[in-house]
Amino acid sequence: MTRAVEAGPSPSDLPEPAERGSLTIAHAVVRKVAQHAADQVPGTMLTERRVAGVSAGRSGASAKVGGSDNDVELSLDLALRYPAPVREVTGQVRAKVVEEVERITSYHVRSVAVTVTALLPDVPPRVR
């Protein structure tokens, strides 16, 4: 018994690439990529989140995304390890964030504002 094999559309049957549709990457995705990239830089630290004095886990960098079209402006809040060369680490954060956001999303990063919200010791303080 022979089975008929159905072939898919041939390349000549497909619409032109420009007519196939578009891809939009939400700013929420750009924010997550920026936060993850910032957290990968040596010298950045996770901080403990607290809600009404109760520990709610740990978190890394926090990002906000602005801009329009294919250009984005990023604002990052992050904690650094103490003692740390602040200018050096924040420069590395900017470079890593721009590289990753542009590589993964194809957005052009116009600016990255970094705010250091805390300098934290490598070792947690002793409890007495």
TrEMBL record:
Residues 1-21 are annotated as: Disordered. It comes from the Bacteria. InterPro entries: Asp23 (IPR005531). Belongs to the asp23 family. This is Asp23/Gls24 family envelope stress response protein. It comes from Amycolatopsis echigonensis.
